[in-house]
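Before relying on records like the one below, remember that each one covers exactly one chain. Contacts with other chains, cofactors or solvent are not represented anywhere in the record.
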Amino acid sequence: MPTNFRPKYISFDCYGTLINFNIDPTTRRLLDGRLPEEQWPAFKAMFRGFRYDAVCGDYKPYDQIFQDSFDRVCKRWGLAPTEGAGAEFAEAVRGWVPHEDVPAPLKTMGENYQLVILSNAEDSYLDITVPRLGAEFHAVLTAEQAQAYKPRYQAFEHMLDTLNASPEDFLHVSSHTRYDLMPMHDLGFPNTIYLDRGYDPHSPGYNYTTVYSLEELNKNLGL
């Protein structure tokens, strides 16, 4: 990130970056003891991979993304599909809350910059989630509006078109390299931040700046 850089917008991924992506309890409950505990880490990683694969295709509602990816990973593990799993995951998402380290520094950031969310969810989820963040947002953009999920370029193009902006206008913050930072690098976004919450391995060739908290980012911005 350039010294003294003041972006027009600071944009964020939402779930995982600002909101705790607390999917494990629901996943374990839906498995209902059908998986030996020693296999849980491998199942969890594969489920994450199938969710990524699901959003790379044509747009479907968010609960269907969960249903399809959970059915597919269960099939790989020889487990029967679970009717209604997508709806249960969707309900869980609506209950998730911000990471503890988010609200205070995000509020400070919002008092000095125009904040934007670009989320892989539908409007109805963000209507519930955004008020929990405790900051003012200039725009809340969703996969539903774009009719495409990140990492599809269409999602990022929707942000640019909606705000009549260019990639240089943004400082984008995400805890997901594959969903956000890699495609944004390819699309020419020069200023991206990896808020490392341990989801992804580092990929330094994509020229992002790594921070470990929003408070650290605020210090870098002189706030």
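The domain at 9-19+97-220 is CATH 3.40.50.1000 (Rossmann fold).
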